[in-house]
Amino acid sequence: MKQNKxxxxxxxxxxxxxxxxxxxxxxxxSKTGEIFTSKVISTPSDPSVGFINALKxxxxxxxxxxxxxxxxxxxTTVATNAIIEGKTASTAFVTTKGFRDxxxxxxxxxxxxxxxxxxKPPPLIPRQLCFEVEERVNAxxxxxxxxxxxxxxxxxxxxxxxxxxxxxxxxxxxYRNPKHEKQLGRAIKSKLPNLTISISSEVVSEFxxxxxxxxxxxxxxxxxxxxTYIKSIKRKLIDNKVNAELFVMQSSGxxxxxxxxxxxxxxxxxxxxxxxAVASAVxxxxxxxxxxxxxxxxxxxxxxxLIRDSKPSITKDYSVxxxxxTGAGAxxxxxxxxxxxxxxxxxxxxxxGGSIAWIDSGGALRVGxxxxxxxxxxxxxxxxxxxPTITDANLILxxxxxxxxxxxxxxxxxxxxxxxxxxxxxxxxxxxxxxxAYGIIEIANNAMVNALxxxxxxxGHDPREFVLVGFGGAGPAHVASLAEQVGIPKVLIPNSPGxxxxxxxxxxxxxxxxxKTLIIRSDQIELSVIKNELKSLENQGKSxxxxxxxxxxxxxxxxxxxxxxxxxxxxxxxxxPETSKIDTNWLNELLESFHKTHEISYGFRVDNDPIEIVNLxxxxxxxxxxxxxxxxxxxxxxxSYALKGVxxxxxxxxxxxxxxxxYNRKKLSSKTIINGPAIIEEPDSTTIIxxxxxxxxxxxxxxxxxxLY
Length: 709
Fold this sequence. Notes:
Layout: E1 12-18, E2 22-29, E3 35-41, H1 47-61, E4 69-75, H2 78-84, E5 91-96, H3 102-105, E6 130-133, E7 136-137, E8 143-145, H4 149-160, E9 166-170, H5 179-191, E10 196-199, H6 200-203, H7 209-239, E11 245-249, E12 255-257, H8 258-263, H9 271-287, E13 292-297, E14 302-308, E15 311-312, E16 314-315, E17 318-320, E18 337-339, E19 343-344, E20 346-349, E21 355-359, E22 365-371, H10 390-396, H11 414-429, H12 433-455, E23 467-471, H13 475-486, E24 490-493, H14 500-506, E25 510-521, H15 527-544, E26 555-565, E27 572-575, H16 584-602, E28 611-622, E29 643-650, E30 657-664, E31 673-675, E32 678-682, E33 685-689, E34 693-697, E35 703-707
Parallel strand pairs: 1-4, 4-11, 5-6, 5-9, 9-10, 13-23, 23-24, 30-32
Antiparallel strand pairs: 1-2, 2-3, 7-8, 11-12, 13-14, 14-15, 14-20, 16-19, 17-18, 21-22, 24-35, 25-28, 26-27, 26-28, 29-30, 31-34, 32-33, 34-35
């Protein structure tokens, strides 16, 4: 590589986000704020190949030496894919005698109340690999029956006869007293040192045995896979002379070290989608839009997140695998394997650029959730795809330039896409190819509109009070139409929207989450107990960061409390007041916050009912200096300066294509206004401005789309 012409002290940081279809990378000059992006086809057989390809492409194109990289940030779906595809490590489960069938029984709820055909996903660990030890701790943490050496040796002998890679340990009430779990873990490690061992009191120290067990099992079963993957990434970085520290995105919206990711991989299950939500929150904060709805549409899925006061909503009720979904409350995510760690609360649906259109048995046109992915991809890629996709439909409607897709690196085949839509959609329905393509787009849009309503209207928020942020490779082509249907008057499309999630990796902080179960009424608790428990969590948080690089700033602690009315089964998470003075005023402020949050969430409050404090939570944060966002240079505000040409585009209003101007986004100056219908193209995405909308370019180069009617 050529020597970088920047000054010797100039440092860069890079974020790499692996998606189902494309792998995106964003490089930022930490000093000037200049941003560079790259996009390559993902490599599903070995995601680390796509990772290093995207990184090398940026360094080579910009002639930057690898030793100029300060940090490497990564978001990946390797943990999620291992669970969904059933490719987790062979794992054993050890629990208290009498609870061997905990994973088999799971929960007696189903995601669809009246679906009598619903089947729970099979346990990640088969019954023959579930073992028991004789011990007992009660709900107060008191040891009722001692865990003796005879019981430990019996389990170790049983484990030694199996061909397993990992062990998950979850003993009854270990969140109160972890002594037996730690004793058992040490004993197994000493006799079977090659096994990966996870104990529930370290993974998630909270009550509810099955949720704690499920989280521990997932952590243990994906740890060997994540370990192998991280080692592969590190090896490729070293081979390419990159010595920067590697951080991995967490589901909660923070990053943690690669070493921590190997030890606690359950925290990175929703790594990729979280990066996009963080990017939206940062963009909104810079531009003065604290209340946003983040819409990320890539090649495989579309993800929607609500952001209020510049903070994405966080949930602890999340499932992964099977037909898993998000959702707060008692039945959130009840169709997959539940995890009890903080996750950005998002709705994810199978509607991406590669989602396949098909005709069901009743003769109706359907779209997704099956996707063509990166291999073979949409039909128009010419890589062997057979069935029509959303990308093919957008191409047929004139919304994509076949010679300027992914900066012209992928030439789209119009004829193959047209033939596929005609054969599999238009001909069976007896309509024109264009009408079929438009129908594909409208059906996909309806599914995404429903996702927008789930995170807003169904959770008590008026979408008209929010700005919709559209990004991902396919997001800007659909977002204005979605906003119009939901009633959102303003849309924000950031610079390089196709790689925005990768940029989100570069603007987040190092975070670790800890929790402690109390379960005590607020009118009976001693405030000294809360103070001591929070101090204990602080000490744990400090120890977690002992190996983090010294050039990261001092720790910040954020506290919250899970609370509920006495007698309720599920709780709400409430941000705690300043903890320097934990007194009566502190408690009263906390209780009032709970009443208000309960009223917002459920429509009522009961001031005279006693409140129960369930869990204390601590988020430990180390701030990483954020790169500056560079302002756009002022040029000509006349949009004709950026005009590339005119193209016939089908908007569906009059069953004909309209002659539509096409603009080069890179040439647009701040304060430029473009009236729809129009198309704005850039290397990683295409923005559609429908009729009755316009786009205004702000000082940072973001597009602000507004509905004129």
